[in-house]
Amino acid sequence: MATDRYHRQVQFPDWGEHGQARLRQAKVVQVGCGGLGSMLAPAMVRAGVGELTIIDQDVVDISNLHRQFLFDEKDALEKAHKALVAEKRLRKVNAEVRITGIAEKLSATNAHTLLSGYDLVLDGTDNMESRYAINDWCVRNNVPWIYGGVIGSTGMVMPVLPGKGPCLRCLYPEAELSDKNIPSADEAGTISTIPAFIALLQVTEAIKLLIRSPDLIQALIVVDIWTGAYHQVSVEKDLQCRCCGKHVASFPRSLYRTKIYALF
After folding, report:
1. Is 264 a domain residue?
2. 6-40: pLDDT as tens digits
3. CA 37, CA 49: separation in Å to the nearest integer?
4. I need a labelling partner for 249 at 20 to 30 A (CA). Which of 91, 178, 186, 224 fits?
5. pTM for this structure?
6. Residue 82's domain is classified under what CATH number?
7. Quick check: is 25 in a domain?
């Protein structure tokens, strides 16, 4: 029974039965099912979201297993598609949730096809090309999304609410990114606990948004899980932002070709 399954969370006063009912009606799409995504998806499914679609073209590799808790060695040997493995496993976790795995790569070209019809987009990606595609489509179509990123022992989370606050391009303008010599996650490494920690922060903010909680954090959350440092940083909307400020309809293809796969 749903009442028994969700009893502990509906007992939380700020969640309640009304929040659970709203969550059950929500449709969420998640882009990426790696370090972040392999924790985003189980957490959303266990919380009782109504519908979850998982988009990721990648297959499981042995190097993923230290931080991607949804997969195992058999998946790596078989080079199984992450999105399809996630769909199969998570259907056994909560049969009440409509789960779909799509083994495709999101891009600026197919974003409208893949992201339309959802209440919220979750960022489980590991590169700025995909994040810009998510950001630009969401701003253009007035759909909220939750940014997340990790590198080393550090992670960041920021809800992006089109029309109400800054977008990803306000935080990370492409010109600034291109001018910085920042190591990739492959170069700097990633400890196994930080993706899960950041993903759970993303899910918490996603649930607040979906159940219409006034406690949604409208700031950039920065965490270093190794040192224990935690900060909330106010991000101002850039009126000159090409995306949410000037509302440029499209962006040059070069803007999606950054080689930076880190946070900054």
Report:
1. no
2. 999 999 999 999 999 999 999 999 999 999 999 99
3. 15
4. 178
5. 0.91
6. 3.40.50.720
7. yes
Of the candidates 161, 142, 172, 261, the one whose C-alpha atom is nearest the C-alpha of residue 219 is 161
- Take residue 193 and report the two structure tokens written for it: 């606990």
**Tokens encoding 251:** 């962006």
Contact 192, 66 (CB under 8 A): yes
Q: Is residue 242 part of a domain?
A: yes
Domain that holds residue 153: 2-256
Cα 23 to Cα 8: distance, rounded to the nearest angstrom:
15
Helices (H), 12-142: 16-25, 37-47, 73-78, 82-91, 111-115, 128-141
Task: Please give the distance of CA 41 from its chain centroid, rounded to a whole number.
Answer: 10
Domains of the chain: total: 1
User: What does the angle CA 157 – CA 159 – CA 165 come to, to the nearest 5 degrees?
Assistant: 130
pLDDT tens column, 154-174: 999 999 999 999 999 999 987
Strand partners, 154: 151, 224
Q: Which amino acid type is present at position 18?
A: H
What number of other Cβ atoms are within 10 A of residue 27's Cβ?
Answer: 15
The one-letter amino acid code at 161 reads L
What size, in residues, is the chain? Answer: 264
Query: DSSP state, 81?
Result: B
In this structure, the dihedral spanned by the alpha carbons of residues 162, 163, 165 and 171, taken in order and rounded to 10 degrees, is 60
In a domain, 49, yes or no: yes
